[in-house]
Design brief:
Elements (H helix, E strand, L loop, with lengths): L2 H9 L8 H53 L2 H20 L3 H19 L2 E3 L12 E8 L5 E6 L2 E3 L2 E4 L1 E7 L1
Parallel strand pairs: 2-6
Antiparallel strand pairs: 1-4, 3-6, 4-5
Amino acid sequence: MSDEALTEKKEQPKRKKKTKKELEAENEELRSQIEAARKEKEELKELAMRLQADFDNYRKRVNRENEEREKYGCEKLIVRVLDVVDTLERAIAHEKGEFRTGLEMIKAQLETVLAEFGVEPIEALGKPFDHNLHEAIATGKGEEGMVIEEFQRGYMLHDRVIRHSKVKVGKN
């Protein structure tokens, strides 16, 4: 060994040997630190799992909302267009000849476009009154609980009523 190495070795303090009691205390301290680290690991794992579940639920909710927005987003526009269809029906009822044929063609085209977007008329006349589909605005002589007259046609957008049928219900 060189002189420098010897000098360094002499300068290093001698490590005091630990007693069995000190080693056991140190060992116990290390065990408690390991146990605390395990608990923290489990808590963090549980937190990560909860966050993952929350994120999955959020993603599902956003997807569901987007699907609904896509499915029903044009509802307000469709309801306004239905008013135009009603006006066309009234014009057709009072018109004769070629002009009537043109109006019927326009109405049929509008109904085709509406059907492409999932709009279907509610059948009411001669059917039992259903408060989920119909709005009773009058009663009259006829078969009890049956729709005997339709004042305004109702419509469904996919599986949702966007306009109830305004009807007259039979009463004995």
